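Researcher: Final request for today, and then I'll write up notes for the group meeting. The sequence and the SMILES for fe (ii) ion follow.
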Amino acid sequence: MALTTDATAAARATLARVALAPGWAASAALVVPFLAGVSVPPTLQYVPLVASVVVLGLPHGAVDHFAVARTRDERPDLRAVGRVVALYAVVGGAYAVVWFLAPAASLALFIAVTWFHWGQGDLYALVALADADHLRSLPQRAGTVLVRGGLPMLVPLLAFPAWYRRVATDLVSLFAADAAALAWAFRPDARAALAVAYGALVAATLALGYVRAESRRPWALDAAETLGLLAYFAVVPPVLAVGVYFCLWHSLRHVARLLLVDDAAAAALGDRDLSRAFARFARDALPLTVASLALLGGLFVLVPDPPSTVPGWVALYLVFIAVVTLPHVVVVTVMDREQGVWA
Ligand SMILES: CC1=C(/C=C/C(C)=C/C=C/C(C)=C/C=O)C(C)(C)CCC1
Ligand SMILES: [Fe+2]
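Model: Predicted protein-fe (ii) ion complex:
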């Protein structure tokens, strides 16, 4: 498959461990104390999400201008970079305008897009990094995307509706609007229906994968990650859980994917020189990460009700993330197609 030609087997093997293990370790390390009933002050829970501005989170999208060309094994020349910049300006710009006009609907779209995007990231990791052979058809892969994306986007709604609602309200409040249009999602009957449907999807997807699996290990890894994250998002409060997941799960896996399509980084990985590979990524991501911070400042000036608290600032940051995620998903979906992730 096209994915294995991205880099040498040695590079992939080195990277798979480094890309997957921190997410497992961090989520396991958080599940245990929260199962034991510890409580963490709300402000502290925001730390990972704030850190994601510079640690993996925001930077993981800041290499999008090179990503498609590199995936196609082309040099990212000015034309290629310009195409991605135009994509961000048009799609991100339009979505930014929609936030001002219809904040509640924009939030719903953000959650739906993130659901898909975080699911597609995990599908790539399963197929390309974990050598999964149990996802043999498009419906199975689409089911896996829905299951994986639902872990960070739906499970917190089911387990922590009040927290979820607070964050949702923080976002739309920036635009001097209220989240009343979304109230249905927090009703017990709606959450119960979503829980039943989602639970059935998880069970059906894993069962079908089990039947289709030739080698048991990758299937077992898929099941363990799915059920592990289910427990994680069910017991760790959402702002903390999503913040850690964003950095160490989704973004780290995507950075690994970027390293494998960058010849110089892949060569460094082949030499087992992880720091040289990650330094390449940091250098590539730095300019647009800095530019993003400037745009974030612009958003601060434009919103009708600018933030003055940590949750307010994080809400502003999440609106910014929403705006850049839409074009980012287009880039990653093109990468998926080039690499045959859905085939
Ligand atoms: C923090 C948080 C939420 C949403 C976070 C989102 C949607 C983050 C998206 C990040 C993206 C898209 C990154 C790009 O890859 C919820 C679930 C609304 C409620 C609970 C707390
Ligand atoms: Fe992403």
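Model: The pocket of retinal (ligand 1) is lined by residues 110-111, 114, 117, 153, 156, 163-164, 167-168, 238-239, 242, 246, 250, 318, 321, 325 (CB under 6 Å). The chain has one domain: 2-28+42-339.
Researcher: Thanks, that's everything.
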